[in-house]
Design goal:
Shape: rod-shaped
Mean pLDDT: 80
Number of helices: 16
Distance between the termini: 113 Å
Bound molecules: adenosine-5'-diphosphate
Order of helices and strands: HHHHHHHHHHHEHEEHEEHHHEE
Low-confidence stretches: none
């Protein structure tokens, strides 16, 4: 290129004579990188990482602009002026990349110490950029300033790029070792992007400029490097965008980005000539398709994962709220139940005390009087006392029954099982208690039980009351004939109580044990006494003993047979 042969440029770099490829390579680079930088920045303006990214993209665009100016402008003073910025931009970019990686890895600003190191490294650039040490002149004939660059200075700022690459590599490796799987992936992607970016700048660009200087490359081929750098940079940004979900870029944006890149690179085939160019663009083109596909899949997967995670988080949150509410309600309900329970228990205890205590006292005094401990009683008095005692016994039993029923209905068992309870003695006691009643009634009461002792796990008083109730009922509802009680053991204990009484209608049999305070019509008519609690209570007690109770009857007037089955000890 010979500067003075170029026509005058408008707006710094528009020249009718400049090859189209030149603009094609530079202008989209500037636009896309600025767009990405601002886009990312706008999504989270307070984030230091986003600001650093904006600084990097802006500097990169600036570099591309001045690169274009140096290629198209004919004013040597302007070229010289902008050329001197190259070193400053490159050294700033190197340091900013290190800074960026620090913030990315540590999620916080760097320490003051590191900032001082950064500034120290940049100082030569700031001081020398505008001096002859950077650039001492311009070759108007050949339209370049390469020969006027001071080599040590060039080595210095090129080394900054290499230093950045090494520094970043060390930081990445150090963090990678202790990172979580997800973060490891981010480190690899970001690391690759930034290292390639630096490589394209500091190695490729300088290699290219060197090769041009020694005549291996022709001028126009140099444009590839700007473009190459841009592509890697865009790659890098694309990865960033994926990884930092805060930007919230959806699949569509990634797709658009990939298509734009493919179109940009593809269009190059129309501008270029020469085998090397075709190979370079061809490789880039294939590369961008592969990368685009990878990027697209990766974004898709990440978005799906993110959405799944968000959904899961939402579900968990909702479940947590529901559970919390349910728990609160449960706690409230439990508290209310507890209060109710306490009140009921208190009431039960109170009733127990109020009703049973005087009855027990009366019974005790009767015992005292009958026993003659407080003076000998005449026969009549003893008879009356015995009646009082019997009535009191019945009342005590009634009270106990009511209290037990109340307990069962509250869902609490009044039964407390103890092992090795002897059944024969219980049966004997019941028999001696009821024998006289049967005799008085003119019916028989027969008991048949094995000679050997039968033991079971039981609440002695409760099981006695349960069996007593059944036999008592049979006597009560049997006007003539009598009651047979049979105790058998065969794996379990079976007690059969059959009577020749009024019988039970079939439709009543099923629900006979279900509720308290229910009485048969016949029973009501014939036998005024009774409250309809005996069967319910007996069945509850037997169930609490892990036993079974059921009844069979051939119908009214044909007697009934009650069966009790209890597990053996
Ligand atoms: P109660 O005997 O106080 O009425 P139960 O709960 O002991 O209460 O009995 C409920 C009902 O079952 C009785 O009213 C009666 O109709 C019927 N029943 C119980 N046992 C017999 C029996 N052995 N023969 C006929 N009916 C009976």
């Amino acid at each position: 290129m010979i500067c003075y042969l170029y026509p005058e440029t408008t707006y710094f770099f528009f020249s009718s004579d400049a090859p189209l490829l030149l603009y094609y390579a530079h202008i989209p680079t500037i636009i896309i990188s600025l767009f990405v930088g601002f886009f990312v920045f706008w999504n989270a303006r307070n984030s230091l990482l986003n600001r650093l990214l904006l600084a990097i993209t802006t500097l990169f665009s600036f570099w591309t602009i001045i690169n274009l100016i140096t290629w198209t402008n004919i004013h040597s003073s302007l070229i010289l002026f902008v050329w001197s910025f190259f070193s400053l931009i490159l050294s700033l970019l190197a340091i900013l990349c290190i800074y960026f990686i620090y913030v990315f890895l540590e999620k916080k600003d760097v320490s003051d110490k590191i900032k001082v190191i950064f500034l120290t490294l940049l100082t030569p650039s700031f001081i020398l950029a505008s001096t002859n040490f950077n650039l001492s002149g311009f070759d108007i004939t050949n339209c370049d300033a390469f020969k006027f660059e001071w080599l040590p200075f060039k080595i210095y700022y090129t080394s900054l790029g290499v230093l950045a690459m090494i520094w970043i590599f060390v930081l990445l490796v150090r963090k990678y070792r202790v990172a979580t799987t997800n973060f490891k992936k981010q480190i690899v992607l970001i690391g690759m992007g930034i290292e390639l970016f630096l490589f394209s700048f500091f190695v490729m660009v300088f290699l290219a400029s060197y090769l041009t200087q020694i005549g291996v490359l022709q001028n126009s081929e140099l444009e590839m490097y700007g473009l190459f750098g841009m592509l890697i940079f865009i790659t890098y940004l694309g990865i960033l965008i994926i990884e930092f979900k805060a930007f919230n870029v959806k699949l569509i944006a990634t797709q658009a980005l990939v298509w734009v890149l493919i179109a940009l690179i593809g269009a190059e085939f129309f501008f270029i000539s020469g085998l090397i160019n075709y190979i370079l663009v061809g490789i880039t083109f294939i590369g961008i398709i592969i990368f685009g596909d990878l990027l697209f899949r990766s974004v898709k997967k990440e978005i799906q994962q993110k959405e799944e995670i968000e959904k899961m988080a939402e579900d968990i949150k909702r479940a947590y709220i529901v559970e919390k509410k349910a728990k609160e309600l449960e706690i409230k309900a439990n508290e209310e139940l507890k209060n109710l329970d306490i009140t009921k228990n208190q009431f039960l205890l109170q009733t127990q005390h109020d009703l049973r205590t005087p009855l027990t006292v009366i019974r005790g005094y009767c015992d005292l009087l009958i026993g003659g401990n407080v003076g000998k009683q005449n026969k009549k008095t003893v008879e009356i006392l015995k009646r009082i005692q019997s009535v009191t016994d019945n009342k005590i039993r009634d009270v106990n029954n009511f209290l037990d029923i109340a307990q069962f209905q509250l869902g609490k068992s009044p039964v407390s099982l103890k092992p090795n309870i002897e059944l024969s003695s219980i049966i004997d006691e019941i028999f001696s208690g009821l024998e006289t009643i049967a005799i008085e009634k003119g019916i028989y009461l027969r008991i048949e039980k094995p000679k050997e002792s039968i033991v079971l796990e039981a609440d002695r008083e409760k099981i006695k009351a349960a069996i007593f109730n059944i036999i008592d009922n049979s006597i009560k509802y049997t006007p003539k004939g009598g009651v047979d009680v049979k105790v058998e053991t065969n794996g379990s204990i079976k007690i059969t109580i059959s009577d020749t009484g009024i019988g039970i209608p079939q439709d009543k049999i099923k629900t006979l044990f279900d509720t308290a305070f229910q009485r048969g019509e016949e029973a009501k008519k014939t036998f005024a006494k009774g409250r309809g609690v005996g069967l319910y209570l007996s069945s509850q007690i037997i169930k609490a003993h892990k036993g079974k109770i059921w009844v069979e009857s051939k119908g009214e007037g044909n007697g009934s047979t009650f069966y009790i089955e209890l597990p053996k000890n």
